[in-house]
Amino acid sequence: MNPLSGDVTLATAATSRVIQISDTHLMRDAGGKLVGIDTDRSLAAVCRLIQQAQPIDALLLTGDLAGDEADQAYHRLATMLAPLGAPSFWLPGNHDAQWSAEHPLKRHFRRHIALASWDILMLNTQQPGEVAGLLTNQELSALAQAVESAQKTARALLVATHHPLAAVGCEWLDDQGVRNGSEALALLAPLGAQAVVISGHVHQDSLQTHAGVKCLTAPSTCVQFAPASEQFRVDELAPGCRLLELYEDGSWHTQVLRVSDEAFAVDLSSRGYA
How many CB atoms lie within 10 A of CB 104? Predict the structure, then answer.
């Protein structure tokens, strides 16, 4: 079942400030670890970082919220984000459970978020039982409609996915991207610089440009993956998130924020994770 539905309008200033949080991998029990890192502890550190970046209008969570599909992880996530005081909108990733329409946290899974001058489209790339991503016909249709609306209204469009639409230069991760990402990029091409795509999954900061469309990925709030690696390899960079400032004229600025007040020791000898 596709959990994404409904529209939300946020009353923001002319410049909207959005934080991308990705790949939190919270486990069933607090204190659970991924490749040596306590994912609750690292998320708490990123939340402190976000508090320092206030004011924030919205939090966009780009998938792999849980590490083991446990319902306890999602409720703990909502509790940890609440003190930030900004609405949070979530995407499922390949490590996440499939959500029902009756789930008590369903309000976080929205399709469209309207800001003062920008529109945000949330796209589901989750394939049940698969690591790689895919955009179903329903998702491609939602993207086509959003592009058409952006052309008519001249409002800039921010698209959020879990799996990247484009290769990031890591052979093992690029095999797990959106299988039909090229179709999505072709739909976005007419917007050029009027569109920006943010994605998770790859646990690293990257930037690609396709037909003028910027495609960004963000660091994880826990373990980082080494750029330009052929096989699974972790990085020693600190947990982080991405800040986006979206301006009234359709221009934007972004920066990656990383934790500096606490150290996290990753297991560099790890050959992978489940």
Answer: 9
